[in-house]
Specification:
The chain has 2 helices and 12 strands, in the order ββββββαββββββα. By secondary structure, the chain is mostly beta strands. It has one domain: Pnp Oxidase, Chain A (Roll), CATH 2.30.110. The strands form 2 sheets. Strands 1, 2, 3, 6, 7, 8, 9, 10, 11 and 12 form a 10-stranded antiparallel beta sheet that branches.
Amino acid sequence: MALPRTIRNFNAFVDGVSYFGIVDEGKLPAVKIQTEAHRGAGMDGPIGIDVGMEALASKMSFSEWVPAIVKKLGRQERFVFRPAMANPSDFGAVPIVATLSGLITVSEPGDLKPGTPSKLKISMDVRSYRLEIDGELLLDIDLPNAKRVIGGQDQLAEMRRAMGI
């Protein structure tokens, strides 16, 4: 019987600095194609037409207020998430590398309560996103440069060529 692989653990880096043991949680961007509904003559219903991508966002939660992270608000930074996926039937690990660049837009300290952890959450407006699983590049998205490579196919190459860029 085959069992699903699960994320067993992860490490997170901000601008090349490891926050192993300090980061509690990370959220990768949801990748969504923005569509515009179109219903032409003779069609029985509307269909979505690809008009670009929706905004990409990422979050990271720290188990303490890290001064170096708070200072990154309003700056272009790089997040790297490195989860390891494992099968419950063996001791192997499949590496995942998610590299994101963008603007740090939110620095949110947790509530102040005696005897509770001092959490810090930061959010990023993602400009570029690369996702590799076991060495295979699945996504390479660069919004400002109109690059959208999914599964090895650059979906916007002809569009850039037509625009002369």
